[in-house]
From TrEMBL:
Residues 36-441 form the FAD-dependent oxidoreductase 2 FAD-binding domain. Its cofactor is FAD. InterPro entries: FAD-dep_OxRdtase_2_FAD-bd (IPR003953), FAD/NAD-bd_sf (IPR036188), Fum_R/Succ_DH_flav-like_C_sf (IPR037099), Fum_Rdtase/Succ_DH_flav-like_C (IPR015939), SdhA/FrdA/AprA (IPR030664), Succ_DH/Fum_Rdt_flav_su (IPR011280), Succ_DH/fumarate_Rdtase_cat_sf (IPR027477). Its EC number is 1.3.5.1. It is a peripheral membrane protein. GO terms for cellular component: plasma membrane. Belongs to the FAD-dependent oxidoreductase 2 family. FRD/SDH subfamily. Gene3D superfamilies: FAD/NAD(P)-binding domain, Fumarate reductase/succinate dehydrogenase flavoprotein-like, C-terminal domain, Succinate dehydrogenase/fumarate reductase flavoprotein, catalytic domain. It catalyses: a quinone + succinate = fumarate + a quinol. The active site is at residue 330. This is succinate dehydrogenase.
Amino acid sequence: MKLDAKIPEGPLENKWDHYKAQAKLVNPANRKKLTIIVVGTGLSGAAAAASIAELGYNVTSFCFQDSARRAHSVAAQGGVNAAKNYQNDGDSVYRMFYDTLKGGDFRSREANVYRLAECSLNLIDQAVAQGVPFAREYGGYLSNRSFGGVQVSRTFYARGQTGQQLLLGAYQSLMRQVKLDKVQLHTRHEMLDLVVIDGKAKGIIVRNLDTGAIERHAADAVVLATGGFGKIYYLSTLAMGCNGSAIWRAHKRGAFMAAPSWTQIHPTCLPQSGDYQSKLTLMSESLRNDGRIWVPKQKNETREPNAIPEEERDYYLERRYPSFGNLAPRDISSRAAKERIDAGFGVGPLKNAVYLDFSKAILEQGVNKITEKFGNLFSMYKKITDDDAYSSPMKISPAAHFSMGGLWVDYELMTTLPGLFAVGEANFADHGANRLGANSLLQACVDGYFILPYTLANYLSGELKSERITTAHPEFKRVETAVKAQLEQLIVIKGTKTTDYFHKQLGKLLYDKCGLSRSAAGLTEALAALDVLSEEFYKDLLVSGEAGEINAELEKAGRVADYLEIAKLMCHDALSREESCGAHFREEYQTPDGEALRNDAKFCYVSAWEWPGANAAPVLHPEPLVFEYIKPSVRSYS
């Protein structure tokens, strides 16, 4: 199968306008006849469902949380990017496009990235109109700050609650459509499979998590807005419920997965403090605007941080990357922290952290100004650690955070399965091999509010004459039977080990072999170990209770079963890419000073993978990346 990204013709800055001018439309009378399923109610899902319903389509929305506003977008802290140039510091759509492309190590499509930067201008106006309380200057103008990988201030923020405030805006838009009966919202429902009829996505099978009942839902198109799979590492910044099951089960029905090994390790998280933990806490990247990162110059240092004199501190990011300093991109900052920790310079009880120090910022700006910027983050840090970041440096450490990889989509956000769209973190589209901070909320909103309403209509215009599919179609029964069989398979094992046991084993294996750094030997070992772990899982898993009832252990078991398969594809993808780029750092491919060494001659492509069936090797379909407007260069932040 040859992949067609459907990039519009014309100059880069005109491609999106050209697409919109040429896209087919559905008239208002016909929209009422069409139903769209949207799975997920985070920023991309809520924005998509609200926008599509407002156009007059019938929308059925699903989330596994007890409320749509508890989607994980609520946890994003630091901000959302937009090339408004309010600071008059040289920003522009083109500069944002270049920063994002370079930040992703030149492993994303030019057209997609430019559209993201272009649409960022409208998003801020949209959010303000919804009542999002962005920070403002004294005169009333919206305030901006910097994030990693850029040299301008383009990040709009609402203290450390930007994701929550943006989600509340999208949630209100969604609930307005629910009230108007244009959206049928099903909370506490989890998608377990995709129904494909005549090669097109026509519905889903879901489980009611409150009753255990299996339900069928038909539609003219399906939109997956289910986030990323970073929780595969077990210890991550994501909520316990986050998972990759919806996109993985769509993958097994024919949708290609792209670049699954590009998973981001965030540099600014609280370090692990013991084996009892089930998640790690993210401290916003915005803290790196004013905090300085350092470790002691002496190994195995036992002194308190304030007792270590300035000349005995190694501000290693400022030393290695003077042009960007503490705002170096996430992949580079995380690897630099790991290198210092592994070399014996880590701090904290487990020697697994580095310091994030605000003493200089407090001295120069005053406590009140730092409190105004970061007060809620400092309070959260105090509540979790019982340490005061105003008087002593924070301790931070890298942790799994974001999936740049996801379902392969074309310019229209449609997967290789006609009628199946993926938005937000569920797709791979805009970030390349590394995501710049504050581009996640941007992509989620832009996909849902501004892109999908056009591209979905372009597809649906060709479906008006198609037969309306109902849940009585035999394929719904066949897929439902397969779903029930899988649930029963997990229930009847009755082994001795819990789902969490297997998830922890998987997470440690991946972090060690397919985490911040990878090698051919380690990845080969990981693939062999995954076979052993999978075999043990299906022999010794213990799931209490039954399928036809509330059963949180069964939910987790299904997700971990999928994780075991996703992990194999991650390792295959990492092993096949014999270069270092962005978050994918192969130890065999690095410069003499330890930086990533790309191979544009052989690997300037997006790796899209086809599911071959159980117990068979995945099939690679490379999508070549063509750079017409920017020449890929050495990614230097020095």
